[in-house]
Specification:
Distance between the termini: 27 Å
Shape: globular
Helix content: over 70%
Strand content: under 5%
CATH architecture: Up-down Bundle
Number of helices: 16
CATH topology: Formate dehydrogenase/DMSO reductase fold
Number of domains: 1
Order of helices and strands: HHHHHHHHHHHHHHHH
Oligomer: single chain
Radius of gyration: 23 Å
Structural class: mainly alpha
CATH superfamily: Formate dehydrogenase/DMSO reductase domain
CATH class: Mainly Alpha
Length: 414
């Protein structure tokens, strides 16, 4: 217990240590997070009237970010599967960064759900009326919290063993890794079923929503990891080889091709059949009765996804500059398509045929930026702690081993 308490203290101490760039980055994130907290306090006082959501469009920017981030968390499995199943050692040194990203992202998901509830005390309805296994929302609660606990255990155990210079026991983490792989797929599938199961929203009633979720997740997540690893490699002594980045590039390449193909299939089904429920899709892509708020956004997202896919297919993306551009396009394009492009159109038009557009308010945007800043703050701290520990620059023996040996030998024997 003494060694573990020392480990926790070292983690806290290390999170405040860095050069001026690190402190500037952390200060900016903290400032944005506090501004988001201030906006949330105003929402807590005045209610959801401070947002752009209405009785007609009851889900907006909060749930859009939640949907996107669930996929980002599930993408950690794309690092775990090659290492632990196919024994691809190119990703062995960087798999921990995917697990740490999953922890930070799941915390962000829970914060977005809390912001969307309006009142935090409504969480008690989930506790006292845990409608399992009938409610898909109950399944989603179990999936998210279970995945958070799994990744916390895996990351914490591996980093603590590295701190103690002790080889991890496979019994204590390998079974959890395989459970986490299945769980990673389930959290996004359950989230997709949460939308698909709402019969009153025909825009979501498609069997390929879950596969689309997984394909987009396995593209955006590794893309974010590629950018993170390059920052880690540039500003720390932790070595990340190009082989690991190129392996992740191949994963993104396949996932983006599948994602674009599934999107084409869904668009064809909607517009070629010209069913009675095509109004929401027409509003999204072409506008409806003069309402066209999302049209420029969705076409921008489709252009970004198409360009990212082309870049990833071309050999030029093996160079880091083109690969970084493809990753940025994938992350932004999927966020638009999977967030606002999926959530809001399902509410337009309403069941009564009304066309009520949704526009996020500055309060909503500030709260979302605050949650994103807090998540990036957590992830930065996790990476800041893990890099020196995994590299062997910070261990228990280095800081306290010599003091203990001197105390045992005595002052005259050292």
């Amino acid at each position: 217990m003494k060694k573990y308490a020392t480990f926790l203290w070292e983690c806290i101490r290390l999170s405040f240590v860095g050069d001026w760039r690190y402190h500037l980055w952390m200060t900016l994130l903290t400032l944005v997070a506090l501004l988001g907290l201030h906006a949330y306090c105003q929402q807590l006082v005045h209610g959801l009237i401070t947002t752009g959501m209405t009785d007609q469009v009851s889900w907006g920017l909060y749930i859009a970010n939640f949907t996107y981030l669930v996929g980002l968390a599930a993408a950690a499995a794309m690092l775990v599967i090659p290492v632990y199943i196919y024994r691809n050692m190119h990703l062995d040194d960087v798999v921990i960064f995917g697990e740490l990203l999953a922890v930070a992202v799941i915390v962000m998901c829970l914060l977005f759900v809390m912001a969307d509830l309006g009142r935090p005390d409504r969480f008690m309805h989930l506790v006292w009326r845990f409608n399992f296994p009938i409610s898909m929302l109950t399944w989603d609660v179990i999936a998210l919290n279970g995945y958070l606990l799994l990744n916390l255990h895996i990351c914490g155990y591996l980093i603590y063993c590295a701190y103690c210079r002790r080889k991890p026991s496979p019994v204590f983490y390998v079974p959890f890794v395989f459970v986490a792989i299945v769980w990673a797929i389930s959290i996004h599938t359950v989230t997709a079923f949460l939308y698909v199961g709402l019969g009153g929203r025909p825009f979501w009633n498609s069997a390929i929503i879950a596969p689309r979720f997984l394909a987009s997740a396995f593209a955006a997540g590794p893309a974010f990891i590629i950018l993170t690893l390059q920052i880690v490699r540039r500003y720390t002594r932790h070595h990340v080889g190009d082989d690991a980045l190129l392996t992740l590039r191949r994963i993104i390449q396949v996932a983006m091709i599948i994602n674009v193909f599934l999107l084409i299939c869904e668009v064809f089904t909607e517009f070629y059949t010209d069913s009675a429920h095509v109004a929401s899709a027409r509003y999204l892509y072409f506008g409806l009765s003069g309402a066209h708020a999302l049209v420029p956004w969705i076409w921008t997202a489709m252009a970004m996804n198409a360009l990212a896919t082309i870049l990833l297919v071309l050999p030029a993306s093996r160079g880091l500059s083109w690969l970084n551009l493809a990753c940025l396009l994938s992350i932004i394009g999927i966020w638009i398509e999977k967030g606002m492009g999926l959530i809001v159109p399902a509410f337009v038009p309403t069941r009564l045929g009304e066309i009520v557009e949704y526009f996020p308010t500055p309060h909503e945007i500030m709260i979302c930026l605050g949650i994103w800043a807090f998540g990036l703050l957590l992830y930065t701290i996790f990476v800041r702690i893990s890099v020196p520990v995994l590299a062997g620059d910070l261990t228990y023996d280095q800081r306290y081993g010599n003091l203990e040996s001197q105390a045992i030998q005595g002052p005259g024997q050292s």
